[in-house]
Design a protein that fits this description.
With about 190 residues, this protein is of the alpha+beta class. It is built from eight helices and four strands, in the order αααβααβαβαβα. Helix 3 packs across helix 6.
């Protein structure tokens, strides 16, 4: 597919192929994601590092065509809706902000959820499942929908699916699907001290 060729990272140094191939796709096919693949993704997430091995992540997910999927989709901001409705699965990533043993504030919870999400996304690439993390949604509405308490923070929605051709998207999403990715050079963010 044209989008795969356009989006594969052109790195200056060797990195894992899953890292080079991971990008935030928007064009998803009609193919569903089987429960076995979903379990593999969540298994990968479960092995992420976390402060005090707290594992402060929770995932709520729904398959396309279900009431849960529609309800999650309804919380999204308008800019994400035109393409996200084609995802096979929508996953809500939630951070538990307190430690289970003490009830104290876990300052690393959001970081640790990000680690788990990265594991999930890289595992997805290995299964040829593409993902797009979405921060543009109504977090209060999501918390109400999922029945979350004050110690749970919904941080992102992850749209998952198998890739489809970019031509199925309307603009500006079609062009974004074919625009090569760019990153800052290492010298801009890594400093020898």
């Amino acid at each position: 597919m044209k989008s795969i060729l356009a989006k594969e990272a052109q790195t200056d140094h060797p990195v894992l192929s899953q890292i080079k191939k991971r990008w935030s796709a928007r064009s998803f096919s009609d193919k569903p994601i089987a429960d076995q693949q979903m379990n593999t993704l969540f298994e990968a997430a479960s092995w992420a590092a976390s402060s005090n091995n707290e594992q402060p992540w929770e995932y709520y997910y729904a398959h396309r065509g279900t009431e849960g999927f529609q309800q999650i989709w309804d919380t999204m901001m308008p800019g994400n809706r035109p393409w996200a409705h084609n995802a096979a699965v929508l996953v809500v990533a939630v951070a538990r902000k307190t430690f289970a043993a003490t009830g104290g504030f876990n300052a690393s919870a959001e970081h640790d959820l990000g680690m788990a999400n990265a594991h999930l996304l890289l595992q997805a690439v290995s299964l040829e499942i593409f993902a797009h993390q979405i921060g543009g949604f109504d977090k209060g509405k999501m918390a109400d929908l999922l029945g979350l308490d004050d110690h749970q923070a919904p941080l992102c929605i992850i749209a998952l699916g198998y890739l489809d051709e970019p031509e199925k998207l309307e603009e500006p999403y079609r062009t974004r699907e074919l625009t090569p990715r760019k990153r800052k050079g290492i010298s801009e963010f890594a400093h020898l001290y």
